[in-house]
């Protein structure tokens, strides 16, 4: 293992290329889902990220809902030119948090974009994703409406999230897709079968979310460390339930042993594995604390040898992880 603490850049997409920091920052947990929101801590974390060269900032309208975009807007005020700003639409929610469903209608695309721009306090988005594919609306119609936002100067680049290979091909034929955001980690490798070869054929970058397995791969979680309101504890994520969790924690211990041998943390090793999967990969580990941000950034300077990568593949074989990624998988790989 070698380390280099200079955070570089990676380029997503070829037909519509966007250069981003090697590592991004997922902001979802600052406003919802993982513990108690702390806006000020989130703002401080984002600003520290920018200071460290983490300029690829990821949010979505449904986080909060809506409050995460406002938080990000406050954090990047006065520093917009440093940021590659990404947000998403499609998981429609009401202000009280009620989930309406997945909406990919052209009218909704336009109204959602305008609302996001207003909340973020910016005049354009660097990357605009369809958060989940609306199976009731042809992807050509959704991406067609997204392309109109590019023509209007409101959006620079287009992305999809958790889309299947056939959908990606149809979308890319309508307008160049710059990036696909999907879950990808040592614990989540299903996209390697069809999706990853497809996006590489088409010249589309990969933005892995949950590259630390929703915290499991940090080695900091156990059966008693999750609060009752944490969705990881209430059944939404089967990998955190009962026997599945015990199986997965045993895998984490194997990762921990390799990490100790490399003199890095388990989380840093897991992130370094994702980064080693290709120069077209720019993960967005999420955190709301400066200390964890700094630990993650250091992972970008870790270079793994072929022997270490082989050891990780042997320690966590594909298919060894117990439980689905979500309790309802109907909206992924769509």
From TrEMBL:
Residues covered by the NADP-dependent oxidoreductase domain: 23-315
Keyword Chaperone: no
Record carries keyword Iron-sulfur: no
Keywords: Oxidoreductase
Stored InterPro entries: AKR, Aldo-Keto_reductase, NAD(P)_OxRdtase_dom_sf, NADP_OxRdtase_dom
Gene3D superfamilies: NADP-dependent oxidoreductase domain (3.20.20.100)
Gene Ontology cellular component annotations, sorted alphabetically: cytoplasm
Superkingdom of origin organism: Bacteria
Molecular-function GO terms, alphabetical: oxidoreductase activity
Protein name listed in UniProt: Aldo/keto reductase
